[in-house]
Design goal:
Distance between the termini of chain A: 75 Å
Radius of gyration of chain A: 26 Å
Shape of chain A: elongated
Keywords (chains A, B): DNA-binding, Transcription, Transcription regulation
Number of strands of chain A: 12
Protein name (chains A, B): LacI family DNA-binding transcriptional regulator
Oligomer: homodimer
Order of helices and strands of chain A: HHHHEHEHEHEEHEHEHEHEEHEE
CATH topology of the largest domain in chain A: Rossmann fold
Helix content of chain A: 40-55%
GO molecular function (chains A, B): DNA binding
Pfam families (chains A, B): LacI (PF00356), Peripla_BP_3 (PF13377)
CATH superfamily of the largest domain in chain A: Response regulator
CATH class of the largest domain in chain A: Alpha Beta
CATH architecture of the largest domain in chain A: 3-Layer(aba) Sandwich
Strand content of chain A: 15-25%
Organism (chains A, B): Actinomadura vinacea
Chain lengths: ~350, ~350
DNA sequence: GTGAAAGCGCTAACAC
DNA sequence: GTGTTAGCGCTTTCAC
């Protein structure tokens, strides 16, 4: 009832292979490590015996002696946000190529849950990729003292980071809206704990000053569809013709909310978002958005993490910046003149 | 360059705690296991010392002796399919409540990748939940001989399974369409490797016979938006007024494709899907769909897995069936009479 | 209730 | 290149 009588699930050990092959256990071990420092034919014989006996090296025991598990943790802010799926794919590809396994941790937009889950995973992983972490800088630094850490979508001094070119993205968005005749942009904020949210807003601010556009900010709101719908209330009190949202999901919610109020996008209001998730292409109107190279982000972060695990120095200093591009679709249009 | 000079990352060991607390290592071990078979005050003293020294029990070493890692693997068919996010949440909640960690494996709709990833994870997990597995029955049985396995969205004899009430769902869908005046339903197939796809089709077939509706099937197509778009080609060659798709994503793609061809949903064609993912509510038209209790599925499967890990007998025999309900939204309408 | 000793399966260090 | 020895940090008999 209480303690599990689980069958120990007998596995063939390195000793049985050694015995059968007529060599020492250490030789078997060497035959299975790379580079295999064993005579070619001895290695072959060992391999055959191992095969026949169904021997599989125990990652647990190996980890206990080497203190390396060949597992990396990938923490994402919210598994329900499609923005992470491509990142995950990129990270997994990079990890698999290097013979590493990825474990995914869903922070559920909570710094507390993120921290708890990560603490629990910490002892069994060789390194950590933090994608859009909601934890504080100091907590992240604390983790980075225990294990190699690479941060994605965020810049923290002294911790290696991979970010997208948010300033360029915000600027391209502003330019696009300006070209369409808009002279006032409203930024719809995502979570305050999001570093990307801060930089996106500040970059927009700067771009608008330079382009001589008026700009203001509302929020913060949840970085999802409901958040966007909520934002409509505030937007209604302070009308505008052009909006930049923290991410695609919020733009989708915003457009829905506006629609309910009878305001049409893009006829009445132009909307631009960030990220370029797949659904942005299937909603009506299709979203104009600042596209991030999601797969590449995940891959780049993981690759750098793996070099750190192999002893390379952390790339501190400037974060690695990945380019963005503006994808113009149907949620932006020329500002209506007159009324 | 080749071998990692990783700092061994000194952790406090059970010996240091034992020394400091003036007890034997085994006593420390006992103090940290439940139920703690140690004098209450001794236990308290040990706990304090441990706390002070920052002692954390090593899951690796523990796993090596107990052969239990307190990790369960959750394999999902495709991380980009939102249908899995709630299942994952449900599974994680159940696991966390029992002090287990979940590792997520994305099979990327490939039985080969699924198998490879799972084989690699196998030695380090106590059990496996297979959500919408694309592997063959025999492969799944093979895994279930190595470790406790619970299968989600699929029924396999002699392996414990959690499924939704697909027959009831298909029937409700057919009834709904019949009530709207449709007398012919086209089923748009998902992947052949999907068990759910098979049962959904067969159930529809039965329901239609009973309700005296005509029915046919097209496909198979990929279980995603592109798959739905592709299906339009075939649908065009064999027109219909009512469609049931394997899942929501395909319905979304199908509706887009129809739209491009000038056919309107629901005016010209009614569409019903399965699953009830969140985006089904935000697309235009909003999807009518057979809603599955996604969170509950994940939780139920994981809970049963945990009992098996604790030595309870596998619930073979009949699969656990969870109820579905038809959510009527805007993608279905009364059949146009005349032309 | 607690201590001593043995060992989980593997790798590292040192001989030869 | 290969064998020998000594653990990694913990749990688990078996005594007492």
């Amino acid at each position: 009832m209480s303690e599990p009588p689980r069958p120990p699930n007998k596995r063939t050990t390195i000793y049985q292979v050694a015995l059968e092959a007529g060599v020492a256990p250490s030789t078997v071990s060497r035959a299975f490590s790379r580079p295999s420092r064993v005579n070619a034919d001895t290695a072959e014989r060992i391999r055959q015996v191992a095969e026949r006996l169904g021997y599989r090296t125990s990652p647990l025991a190996r980890a206990l002696t080497t203190s390396r598990t060949r597992i990396v943790a990938l923490v994402i802010a919210d598994i329900s946000n499609p923005v992470f799926t491509e990142m995950v794919r990129g990270a997994q590809e990079a990890a698999n190529d290097a013979d590493y396994t990825t474990v995914l941790i869903d922070a559920q937009e909570s710094d507390r849950l993120e921290r708890t889950a990560l603490e629990r995973a910490l002892p069994s992983v060789d390194g950590i990729v933090l994608a859009s972490s909601r934890m504080s800088d100091s907590t992240i630094r604390w983790f980075s003292k225990q294990r190699p850490v690479v941060v994605l979508n965020r810049a923290i001094p002294d911790v290696p980071c991979v970010v997208t070119d948010n300033p360029q993205g915000a600027r391209r968005a502003a330019e696009h809206l300006a070209e369409l005749g808009h002279d006032h942009i409203t930024y719809v904020s995502g979570p305050e704990a999001s570093w990307a949210n801060g930089i996106r807003w500040r970059s927009l601010l700067e771009a608008c000053i330079e382009l001589k556009l008026k700009v203001r900010r509302i929020g913060p709101f949840s970085p999802n569809i409901e958040g966007g719908e909520t934002a409509v209330e505030e937007l209604r009190r302070r009308p505008t013709t052009a909006v930049l949202t923290y991410n695609d999901l919020m733009a989708i919610g915003l457009i829905r909310g506006l629609d309910r109020l009878g305001a049409k996008v893009p006829a009445d209001i132009s909307v631009i978002a960030f990220d370029n998730i797949v659904v942005g292409e299937i909603v009506t109107p299709r979203l104009t958005t600042v596209a991030a190279p999601l797969f590449a982000e995940g891959a780049a972060a993981t690759k750098h993490l793996l070099t750190m695990i192999d002893g390379a120095p952390a790339r501190t200093g400037q974060p690695m910046v990945l380019p963005v591009r503006l994808v113009v679709r149907d949620s932006t249009a020329r500002r209506r003149t007159g009324r």
